[in-house]
Structure formats: C-alpha cells, structure tokens
Amino acid sequence: MAVGALGTDDSLSLPLSRRRGRAVRSLPPERLLRSSSPNSISTCSSVPRAFLEEASSSEVPGLGENPIVGMALLAKLLLSPESTRQLLLRWALPALSKLLSKASPLDAARAIKTWGQALRPPAKTEVIGLEGSLCYSSFATATGMQDAATILLSLVAHLESKLLSRYCPEGTEAVLAEKLCARLVGKAGSSPQVQVMACEVLALSFPFWQRHLTTALPPSARQKQATGASNLTGAAGTPAVRPHETSGASAQAMPVDIKDEELERLAVQVLALCQEPHLKASSLALLMQVGAADPPTLLLVMGKAARRIDISAAYASSALFVLVAFVQRYAGKVLPLLTRFTETVLRCLEPSDPALRRQSLMAVTSALHELVQTFPMVDFHQPGQKIAVGTGDGLIVVYDLRTATKWRILEGHSGAVAALAFSEDGSRLCSYSGQDCSIRLWQTAAAGFLGSLMGPGTKCLKEQTLPPAATAAGANQAGRWKNCSLQWTQAGRVKLVRENGDALQLGMA
Predict the structure, then answer these.
(1) Cβ atoms of 414 and 440 closer than 8 Å
(2) For 89-131, what is each residue's pLDDT tens digit?
(3) Are 180 and 150 in contact (CB under 8 A)?
(4) Contacts of 299 (CB under 8 A, 6+ apart)
C-alpha cells in the first residue's frame, strides 16, 4: 500500500516496507563565459543566457581578476530568475571562495569595503565604493544594489566571517541579518528571487545569524509591552535596565528566553512562506535549520499550525510534512522527543474535532509511517489502531489512534527501550533494551469490560535476560540504535538484531 493510504473505516494504514530514498537530480556547475574586458564593471550589466545554459563537468571557473566586478557578476547570476539552489551550492559558493582566495589581500579588502558601502547606499549619488567603482545602473535601482550587497556579504560571512568583521564597520553582521529577514518576509520591496536567496543564505549559516534574530526581526507585542514597562520604570526614578547593561545571572538568562521566542516567530513566518511554490524548497531548508537549533520549538510551532485548518487544510498539512522532513534529516534530534512528537501528531486525530481529523488523516499517516520506519523503538498495529513508543527512561507508551490518547504505559525496563514489535494479532508486544540487556513480552489485548476498568494489560508476561552485547573498544556509541530491529518470525519466536549487529532467535511463548 502506498504511503498515506487511508483505511475505509477512518483508520490509519501504514505500509510495512521501508521507504526508499528519493533520487535527486544534480545539476553540473555553470561555465563562466570569458569577457573581452573582464575587469570592466560594464560586463555586469546583464547575465548572458549561455552563462546559464553551458555546463562544465568539474572545474569551478574564475570570475575575472577584479573581485568587485566578479562579485557583481555573481550577484546578478544569483538574483536572476533562472538561478537555482543547486547553482548556489555547487557553483556560486566555490566560485566566490576561489575569487577571494586568489585575489591579493588589498584587492579582497577593497572589494569587501566597496560592497559594504553598497549595503548602506548614499541617498543622492550615482556611484559608490572606492573610486566610484560600482554604479547603481549596474543593478537598475538602489534597492537592487542593496539586494546584491546583502546576498554577497552574507555569503562572504558564510565562507569567512573574519573578512567581514575585519573590513566592514562594526555592526555589519546585525545589519545584514536585519536586511536578510526583511527580504525574507518581502518587506523590502524585493523580487521573489531575492526572497529565495535570502532564505537560502539564512539556512546556509543559520547558527551565525541566529544570534542576531532579536534585533533582525520586528519586535513582538510582548517585547513592546516589556519595553514600555521598562521606560515607565525609568521615568519613575529607577533607571531602566538596558540589555547591554545587564550583568550577572539575569544577563545570562535573558537571551535564552528571547532566543526561544525569536525562533518561534521565525518558524511561524517561514512556514507561511512554505505555501508559496517558489519558496517551498528554500523555506523547508531554513525550517530544518531552525529545528536543528531548537527541536522543541519547531515541534511546538508545527504542532500548533497542524491544527489551524481555519487558515487552510494545505497549511495545516504542510506543518506535519515539515515534521516528516525533520525526522528524515535529523532523526537523532527527534529521538529524545519521541513521545512528544507522537502526541503532537495525534492531537490532529482528536475525535472531538471531526473536521480536523478528516483533513489531517493523510499527513498524520505520513508522519507516523516515518516514525515507524525510522525508529526501531516505535511500532504500529493497524487492525488494533495502536502505536507503541519506547522511551529513553525504560517506559513503553501505547497510544490508541481511534481516541488519540494514551492507552497503556508499560513499566519494567530499567534502561532505554531500543526496539519494539507487535505480534500479528496485536495481543502481545515484545520489547528489547540494550542497556538493561533484557527482552520482555507484554499483553496488549483488551481484557474485557471489568479488566478495562481495573487497568490490566500492563503486566509483563515474560522476561529474558541477555548477555551484554560485545562492543569494539573505542567504537562510537552514537547512532547505534539504528542497528536494532525486532521482528516476529513465527508463533512464539522473535528475531532480534542488537546494537552491534548480532542476530538472535528467541522463543517468547
């Protein structure tokens, strides 16, 4: 059955086969056509069509001898409608790195200073930079020049941030972050391609830009209220505390709260951009970086958005598909949040909101399928509509998808649960923990009306102790959970593959 198939009784049906990775067509680097006058700024007036069409098999071409001109041509290429993400990653970044490394220190400094001046263009001049080496006419408007400077200097910061701090005025990083965010949300009157490039540049070096989000994004209502209260306090006779004057424990605690709030606001804005076809891939790349920086924040934002069918069903579903992509990309970061992740997804199936449940079935199916296929400590029993999740503290949480609630919590393991497997009829659940070296068998069948009231089914039917798994000296322990698997082979027997790859056939009858 294909991914996302729905049962005929409003239930979820997950395929048993593991999803295969999608093949991504890669584009070769572009060839720079040699200009008869490579050092003339006039060569940047347009990007030749052949520049975008011809391809080179391996060598990254040069951009001429003049770094200012080379960077201008590079900016025109990146901001042209034909530019792609592959072009940025596979061609533009290596070409810019080659340009700066081959230039003399004096020429590199001159180029960066000139483009730094273009970042803050004077109001009534037609030329800019040292000796008037850049013309607004090269980019049609002052806004176009600022767009080019923003993207180019951001890429310089990605390649070598020291160059930016050495040759540009103090505070340039914060200015760049603010301009990138303004172009990202379309507040700078820039073209859609500038939006795409701003999104890509933020995703490329997100940890670098993250520290500037507080000033780069417009202040939230809560921050405005706090600022107003601070000003009132200062007016009453007590000096208002400014962020840069705060010291001690308060100074260390304040940025954490602000960072979480800023990440949440950024994630909300970027998810909205995901609805635009030309921004979908770039926005998803940026959301992945937000999640890598703070997985709980991404989970919180996407969980709220997944229930906003009042905005649109597509918007709500896209939030769940962002979580699917995050599992595919950063499974290790999802691992400690498995129960929270599962509960976030299951909230979309609440029976009290039939419209939400109906609209979310396809996306929820995809999200749960990804969990089952990625994590051996998650298993799904379709006929019983139960999903079991093993945790790092030894608990097993079984959820009922029909009611979207916790059905059972199984306690017994003293270490992290590494693998789970329902029996074919769903009446038993087998669990394995490599930390406490044990495999257990649990009853998961309903026990009648009286039994349901008394809460049975948490009893461990059988426990079997295993010898410690042999591990090579110095072996990396991270990610070894991916080697585990647990599968019922026949009546009463299971096949266990442990963290070190050892396979065991065990009788659990």
Answers:
(1) no
(2) 888 888 899 888 888 899 899 889 888 888 875 554 455 554 4
(3) yes
(4) 291, 323, 337, 340, 341, 344
- The amino acid sitting at 333 is K
Q: Which long-range contacts (CB under 8 A, 24 or more apart) does 52-60 make?
A: 52/77, 52/80, 52/82, 54/30, 55/27, 55/28, 55/29, 55/30, 55/31, 56/28, 56/29, 56/30, 56/31, 57/28, 58/29, 59/29, 60/29, 60/91, 60/94, 60/95, 60/98
- Any idea what the Cα angle at residue 326 is, between residues 324 and 330, rounded to 5°? 130
Which is nearest to 442 in space by CA: 423, 414, 424? Answer: 423
User: Which range among 126-140, 361-375, 478-492 has the greatest average pLDDT?
Assistant: 361-375
Structure tokens at 495: 């096949």
Return the number of other C-beta atoms located less than 10 Å from residue 63's C-beta.
24
> How far is Cα of residue 332 from the mean position of the Cα atoms in its chain?
13
Task: State the pTM of this model.
Answer: 0.80
DSSP 118-150: HHS--TT-SEESGGG-EEGGGGSSHHHHHHHHH
CA dihedral 360, 344, 325, 265 (to 10 degrees): 100
Separation of alpha carbons 429 and 434, rounded Å = 17
